[in-house]
Design a protein that fits this description.
Elements lengths: L12 H28 L13 E3 L7 H11 L3 E3 L6 H9 L10 E2 L3 E8 L4 E8 L4 E2 L4 E7 L5 E12 L5 E14 L25 E7 L5 E7 L4 E7 L4
Parallel strand pairs: 1-2
Antiparallel strand pairs: 3-6, 4-5, 4-8, 7-10, 8-9, 10-11, 11-12
Helix pairs in contact: 1-2
Length: 242
């Protein structure tokens, strides 16, 4: 029997959530598949510096059980999009009207760099490799650094930050990235470095070290550290710069 337009229907919330749970589980499974694909490309979705947020959009974002299930799994990474019901329409409108000459360009929102030693090792300074508001285009951005070491082993501590002070030092929201150890001394090229401490060796200033950083179109940063004179190098891939 059909109900009238003015009929009041009362549903038990617990029963409603139980019936909806299989559908919610399917949605969470899809997110897990997406995250698995990110891991295959060297991105750790559990790392805040590599994937900062997962935004909820669409009508389902208003259903309490959806947000609750996602927050139980992903915690504070879950964020409600500013335009939850218009996100798809906004994207389609931008993509569907090339004649309007409106283009969306991705840009980094944080600084990425590495700590260096200055004044003969007496002071630490921040070397920004890729700065905030870097426009991301089709071609990779490449930055090189060349220097002559005074230690047997280099310890490169990478950092992401939201701002730089007047002296170029990190401030605001700071997120440590990976620490890379590289043998400046050719005699250590094939040896484990985990137990070795940075030891001064001024005679190594005859060696030239070349660091090459490539910001790729998927947001990852490829790092190559080489000792051309020693004939060896190491390659790394760091996660997504926000």
């Amino acid at each position: 029997e059909a109900l009238g337009d003015d009929a009041l229907v009362t549903l038990e919330a617990r029963a409603l959530y139980e019936r909806a749970q299989p559908l919610i589980d399917r949605s969470v499974d899809q997110v897990e598949r997406l995250f698995a694909g990110l891991r295959e490309h060297g991105i750790d979705p559990d790392n805040q510096s590599e994937l900062g947020a997962l935004y909820l959009v669409g009508g389902g974002s208003a259903f309490p059980a959806v947000g609750r299930a996602l927050r139980q799994r992903y915690g504070r990474k879950i964020q409600l999009a500013p335009q939850t019901h218009a996100a798809t329409a906004i994207g389609l409108a931008i993509a569907g009207d090339p004649a309007a000459s409106i283009f969306v360009r991705e840009a980094t929102t944080r600084h990425f760099g590495v700590w260096r030693e200055a004044e003969g090792g007496r002071r630490k300074v921040f070397d920004p490799i890729f700065t905030k508001d870097l426009l991301v285009g089709d071609a990779p951005r490449v930055v090189r650094r060349r220097y002559r070491p005074i230690h047997r082993v280099g310890e490169l501590r990478f950092l992401e930050c939201s701002a730089l002070d007047a002296g170029g030092q990190p401030e605001g929201d700071l997120t440590p990235w990976r620490t890379i150890r590289f043998p400046y001394d050719p005699s250590l090229a094939d040896r484990p470095l985990a137990e070795l401490r940075p030891e001064r060796a001024p005679e190594l200033s005859a060696q030239e070290i070349v660091e090459t950083y490539t910001y790729r179109d998927d947001g990852t940063i490829a790092v190559e550290i080489a000792n051309p004179g020693g004939g060896y190098r190491s390659d790394y891939v760091l996660g997504v710069l926000a």
